[in-house]
Amino acid sequence: MNLYFPKWRDNPVAAFIATFVVAAVLIALPFVVGQLGNAWVRALAFALLYVMLALGLNIVVGFAGLLDLGYIAFYAVGAYMYALLASPHLTSTFPAIAAMFPDGLHNSIWMVIPLGAALAALFGIMLGAPVLRLRGDYLAIVTLGFGEIIRIFMNNLNAPVNITNGPQGITLIDPITIGGVSLAKPVQVFGLTVPSVYLYYYFFLLLVIVTIVVCINLQNSRLGRAWMAIREDDLAAKAMGINVRNVKLLAFALGATFGGVAGAMFAAFQGFVSPESFSLMESIIVLAMVVLGGIGHIPGVILGAVLLAVFPEVLRHTVVPVQQALFGKVLIDAEVLRMLLYGLAMVLIMLYRPKGLWPAPDHGINPSERMGGGKGGKAAAAGA
Amino acid sequence: METFIQQIINGLVLGSLYSLIALGYTMVYGILNLINFAHGDVLMVGAMTALTVIVGLKGLYPDMPAWMLMAAGLLTAIPACVILSLVIERVAYRPLRNAPRLAPLITAIGVSIVIQTLGMIIWGRNYHTFPELIPTTTFDVGGATITLTKLLVIVLSAVLMVALMLLVNRTKLGRAMRATAENPRVAGLMGVNPNLVIAQTFAIGAALAAVAGVMIGATYSVVHFSMGFLPGLKAFTAAVLGGIGNIPGAMVGGLLLGLIEALGAGYIGDLTGGVLGSHYQDVFAFIILVAVLIFRPQGLLGERVADRA
Q1: Which of A204, A206, A259, B297 has its CB 3.0 to 4.6 Å from that of A74, i.e. a possible disulfide?
Q2: What CA–CA distance (Å, rounded) separates B239 from B251?
Q3: What is the pLDDT of residues A267-296, one digit of tens each?
């Protein structure tokens, strides 16, 4: 327990009580928020998916110091994998597959989660391998390009063989079923009806907890220390006997893993995927979550993800009425205002609070101070 | 053969535009080691300002000659972009000049989003048609055709690039720019004001972007609030291809990328037996980018390579 509550290292009772309180709040949350309408619980469930994504990206950006602007590609890979394995799309397009699976393609999540993780990790390595030698900002551009390539392929792989169904996307994706209980239908527990969104919320919560435990353990492992060493100075890390190439590849692969699983969950939750959900903007939003919360600091990243994921829902319910009250008409819709505020937040945070809202404490795991080796950059300037 | 020449012409037009934009990236990168993500959006603001001015003037004075409209559009777009770029540099980049490397990159992305969103608020989500001001005369080149607009794009870009080369290599400002790129501190000791030189570099890049934006509008007749993103990204690729920080490199890289894209889009269908179509055009730039960075990270004309992470 003291790994997760470092403040209460010497006070197991306090740590135990804290765990209990946090758990009680998280379990009760959908019932409280649900009073405002199921849309809010849905927003919470999405926030949990974003927490997973942000924690995954944090491994790459925060721990290893590699700026990845195409992270959403892994989310897309996971989502499309689940969509293809659990929807009528493949069986209706390819008679051969329909003959192999007469009941249609339906796969258990116990197969999909490891498969999604593995496939995304493979893509992570595919991306990571060629770009390992690149410096921070080149890396950013190449990963951005990678994200765009994946999206272009998803948009266009409907001809000559219809694999992704192009811009229309894939519909009728199976919901998640655990032990015969479908999360898409309300469940009766002790006479209490738990709606479908609540079930997804609890399931995602479970996944997020697993993610957090994995991330904290990674951070404190030999691998985590190696990541932070290469983040601070990869030459020095090399000199200390760290295999920089393999360690960076592992960062890409493990970061991608969380993206892939979150993507599969996204597909099941929405019941629908299309290339539109995986634009560059999404990558930037996830990056904004990591930056806003505190690069490399797990609680900060969680805070950033929850804030930025719930924020649009709040905006949607406030911006339009406020503008109508002030001007009598809607001048800027919530979606536009959200992007504007995200952009401004990224600029202002970097200018005034570069370590994020909830920065890492100063003992060796503080990335923003010297990330990317700022001093080495100037000497390397090419002549204009 | 006609197709080939036609694609070469299209590639040269596209390439000239990429070159102009790439120059802005490469000059800033040469001095600050910063990828100015907002550069593409500055281009958008240029095109949109020109559009607003041209449409407005046309409404006020319907019998104004087309060349005057065009000139008025350009002459307002350039100052608008220069001012915007200077403001961005002052507010978002200068305070972070000695910050860790990721910080200015992240602000640059933020600035890009802010400008794009503001563009959407001001000019709306819709595609706008850029008025046709240059006569649609066409010339015959070995069976292929080239419009006057496209010819003007190629000529104007060439003129601007020659002017820029002269500026950088022959004038005092150019020498100051090269000195600052080499080493800002030592340049400062020699009496160069690095802040001023950096601001001037941003201004020159923005002016070139404004011209490129107006020319994109004139050539492809459509402008849109997100029109700067893809050309910006590709121009950056062009700058990397030529060797980032290297001005002739940006020109060569831009032209080369334009040619590769046009020829690739023209022939990919035939080469792959119709499996891949011209909608994969955008993939070429990224594949080239990755390939260059892996095999020749210093670019075609770049001399030095910086491999420190």
Answers
A1: A259
A2: 8
A3: 888 888 888 888 888 888 898 888 888 888
